[in-house]
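Propose amino acids for all 148 sites.
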């Protein structure tokens, strides 16, 4: 994605357009950063080759986000440390959601794959999929968080 303007407008939002074969097209794009607002200083930045999209923040201090290399991460909001990660069947560029059933909490994420839109998205990012994976459809992953 190429950002033409950092000032959003009503008609064009941030005026973005796709730039092919660019996993991370602008510095710090899709890289979470914790900032001390009072001091105006960066506490940590998670520098990644592939941008993270659609971050979920939780009251328990966890951040969840997927990247364009099919990874889903759980990140400590205070340190930026990656606490857990897994590989999905496709790209996840949407925010995960969380919900509870009784006292058990879950994180759910959609992983796109196998559709024309997903193939186009992967091609623009220069990502090649494993043989046969192009036939897979969207997948919904649900992860149970450890009980307190």
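Proposal:
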């Amino acid at each position: 994605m190429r950002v033409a303007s950092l000032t959003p407008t009503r008609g064009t939002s941030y005026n973005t357009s796709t730039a092919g074969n660019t996993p991370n097209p602008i510095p710090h794009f899709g890289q979470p950063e914790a900032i001390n607002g009072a001091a105006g200083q960066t506490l940590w930045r998670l520098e990644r080759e592939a941008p993270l999209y659609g971050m979920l923040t939780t009251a328990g201090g966890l951040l969840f986000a997927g990247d364009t290399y099919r990874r889903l991460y759980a990140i400590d909001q205070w340190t930026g440390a990656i606490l857990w990660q897994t590989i999905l069947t496709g790209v996840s560029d949407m925010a995960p959601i969380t919900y509870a059933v009784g006292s058990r909490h879950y994180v759910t994420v959609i992983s796109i794959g196998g559709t024309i839109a997903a193939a186009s998205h992967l091609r623009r990012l220069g990502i090649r999929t494993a043989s046969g994976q192009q036939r897979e459809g969207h997948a919904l992953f649900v992860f149970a968080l450890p009980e307190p």
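The longest strand covers residues 104-111. The first helix runs from residue 116 to 124.
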